[in-house]
Amino acid sequence: MKLKTTLVAGVTVWLAAGAAWAVPAKPNILFIVADDMGYADCGAHGCKDVPTPNLDALAKAGVRFTQGYVTGTVCSPSRAALMTGRYHYRDGVFDWIHPGAAGLQADVPTVASYLKQAGYRTAAVGKWHLGEDNQCHPLRRGFDEFYGFLGGGRSYFPDKPGKGKVNHYTQLIRGQEPVVEKEYTTHAFGREAADFLARQKGQAGPFFLYLAFNAVHTPMEAPDDYLSRFTAIEDKKRRTYAGMLSAMDDNIGRALKALKEAGLEEQTLVCFISDNGGPIVRNAPNASRNTPLRGGKGETWEGGIRVPFFMKWPGHLQAGTTFEQPVIQMDLTATVLELAGVQRDAKWPLDGVGLLPYLSGEKKAPHETLCWEYGQQWAIRQGDWKLTFALPTKEAKTPILGLYDLSQDIGESRDLAAAQPEKVKQLQTAWAKWRKDVIGDQPAPNITIKNVNRSP
Ligand code: CA
Description:
By secondary structure, this protein is α/β, with parallel strands linked by helices. The protein has helices at 53-60, 75-84, 111-117, 185-199, 224-227, 236-261, 302-305, 329-339, 356-359, 421-438, and strands at 3-8, 11-16, 28-34, 63-65, 68-69, 121-127, 145-149, 173-174, 177-178, 207-212, 268-274, 309-312, 321-323, 327-328, 369-374, 377-382, 385-390, 400-405. The termini are far apart. The site of calcium ion has 6 residues, from loops.
């Protein structure tokens, strides 16, 4: 197939005859995921008190998605949908996966299993949180290598044998073997990622690395030399968060430096997201900030589901651009499967869409409709409209069914439901149809939402 380069809407892509998308060779793929990082907590989104030079450079080197969403408002659902390119409800993940609980459905293909079939060398580093059973283990889900832990969180500091809660959920492992890690785990994950990337130099064929930090999730633990960077921050929790975030940013820089030193920067598509919004007052609050968004982790307000979302591919995606239509993390999966030329199994249709034709301007909005459900909470976005159903809080004693025009009101502060009852009805009907199609008739699981004081 003859390829030509074209420059459309500031994005260089390869456009194949017949408007099919192709690239000269399968690019390497690097997914970087942060945990519970606030929407506002990087320089690219206006953060002032915590420098994030490496994340900012990543955003500046490619495309910053201003309306980048995740399907899950907590860890496991979001990570599951990134792995599969499918709404996580389809594959048995409705909430964060508790210790010992069932994980991601065993036979659904993952981005790693697909890429492995397509000839990629694959590795996962960091937090897994998609199940602890053998059938859920990263090595059974398409990864050649794994270094990290299977659960949802653990101490960042070395385990003390005989003390603390070292268990199957928290134990650091290489492959399936327990290891004794002496470094702060964020540094260890940066080290392992850099090591994997350095090993790719000169190798034939592409690679996929999934670098999934548990930073900046609780527990609030930062090394002293990172805490000392932020003595000007008075609030202790924010100061610790700043140290944790700074350590993650440094280790993202370390991985990207290794990629560059391996001579692979221009052959590698790098994607970054946070797995969900920053937890503001519940769901393991960590002093993150989602300004100007309302709410946070565990909620279907924008603060729970809209996240930092960047993509870079030097020489292919033009640096310094923004994409302002709604996208969602499942699209990253679909994008890389298309780039890799993967033959997908029709039994497992994707909900994500490949983004390159949208980035080029050939196509317009990737999604007419996006929907969410978390316990009794839900939301739908269509165009600029969002209908959000939120549970009672100390401030709002009754549930809220609020209608918002996000083009004018990114903070979901002006409820237009009373003024636009027909729009409410239309969106509610559309959400119900989506729910029936994707989730079916089963009732929403009972997820306990604490009744807490929460400011938008
Ligand atoms: Ca998370």
